[in-house]
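Good morning C.,

I know you're traveling, so I'll keep this short. The sequence:
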Amino acid sequence: MILRSWLLAVLAIGLLSADALAQSRRDKEQTYVLEQSYEVNRITPPQGKKVKNVILMIGDGMSLMHVYSAWTANRGKLFLDNCQAVGLSKTYCADRLITDSGAGGTAMAVGQKTNYHSVGVDTLGRPVPSLIDLAAAKGKATGIAVTCRLWDATPADFCCHNKDRDAEAEIVADYVNSPVDYVFGGGSKLFENRADGRDLFKELRAKGFKTARSWEELEGVKEGKVFAVTDTVDTPLPAERGDLLARASLKGIELLSRNKKGFFMMIEGSQLDDYGHFNDLDLLMQETHDFDRTIGAVYEWAAKDGETLVIVTADHETGGLTLVDGDLKSGKIVCKFSTGGHSGVMVPVYAFGPGSQDFTGIYENTAIFDKIKKLLDL
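The tokens, ready to paste straight into the viewer:
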């Protein structure tokens, strides 16, 4: 509860104060030790070649340095290591070299570079069909699971359309018209008690969704379309929510996989980006390890299924993280941040399962959309 109270206090003070707090940490070495490492088992990839389902996992703001720091802290092991192929993605957007989650996620969601701060639209602000839209049009099931508020950029990139990611109330209303079948995240604040008088939960129920408001409600759902919003804004900090992202992801997979035509799902480790902005190494590693354990749970399911491709990547890097020292045996890392914003490095792309060979090399972030579209024949 202490960590959560601290984070809420920072958010309440405002962005300027948060930036000042990050600035006070910047250029100073921070030390993190993972006291209790977690076990990582070898997951054997399926041998088949058919791609029926695709799960795209996005670590928001996650670079190779985040991954290597987390690997070091966990004594040289991550579930991510089970991947079969690795590539590099160029993250710049249409009008800036340094992108944001709006433009970075949109490139993967719709296959086009767009302007900074845009979600699900082209450079002229026109809506573009996303992988969610295209998969639904082919009769496939679709879903997203995130640890942030649902009006945040990455989930919006796949389900909504707006030239400005800050138009939060408008963006949330777009979910009512999305063909998505399963949604998990936070942000109930803008779904009800709205300035325009709309109750989006009521509208979603009218469209056949079960609107679960807690994990317990979601866990009890056995079939049908689900829109689960468990928190007012973001989901809790990693230490408080436990393996919620993994549970919510597997619940979505359980429901979506009943579609005989297959499914597409996007899963995001959302709060990596927040803790990169805050330059908070402790929380950043907690969120990265939580995301890695979620990757492990998804890899396990995909390995048993045999026809599921899992792609793990990022939309950009956040914080300019550098690993400057550490000790592999004790799980100690010493890091520095160079910015409270995003940096312009390429980000890794990891692939596991049938079709993974298509993700090697160096390519534009839009190519991730192209490759998924081709593999799923959308």
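Safe travels,
E.
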